Amino acid sequence: MARETSCLSRIAAGTAIGGALGGAVGAVHGTYQAIRLGVPGLMKIRYIGQTTIGSAAIFGLFLGAGSLIHCGK
């Protein structure tokens, strides 16, 4: 039972770290793209938010899946 709890905590930690890292990268990339593409006014905030959440979700998913695969060894 302790191994399962340890495995679940590793998966949760991997997902959280991936989400944080993806959010940071997404915010930087979204800001750069919004300025570069000349997104008007308040649409910049929406564009940056979408990029941030999308990157956080994808990075979190892949780091969580990687932790799950690694945990099975």
How would you describe what is shown here?
This is Reactive oxygen species modulator 1. This protein is mainly alpha-helical. It has one domain. It has two helices and no strands. Helix 1 packs antiparallel against helix 2. The protein is rod-shaped and about 50 Å long. The mean pLDDT is 91.
Keywords:
Romo1/Mgr2, 2 helices, single chain, transmembrane, 89% helix, mainly alpha, rod-shaped, transmembrane helix, 73 residues, Reactive oxygen species modulator 1
Q: Alpha-carbon distance between the termini?
A: 16 Å
SSE ordering: HH
Beta-strand percent range: under 5%
What is the number of strand segments? 0
**Number of helical segments with 4 or more residues:** 2
Largest sheet: none
Specify the helix fraction band.
over 70%
Low-confidence stretches: none
State the secondary-structure class: mainly alpha
Radius of gyration: 16 Å
Average pLDDT works out at 91
Number of domains: 1
Overall spatial form: rod-shaped
Transmembrane segments: 12-35, 47-69
Protein name: Reactive oxygen species modulator 1
Keywords: Membrane, Transmembrane, Transmembrane helix
Pfam families: Romo1
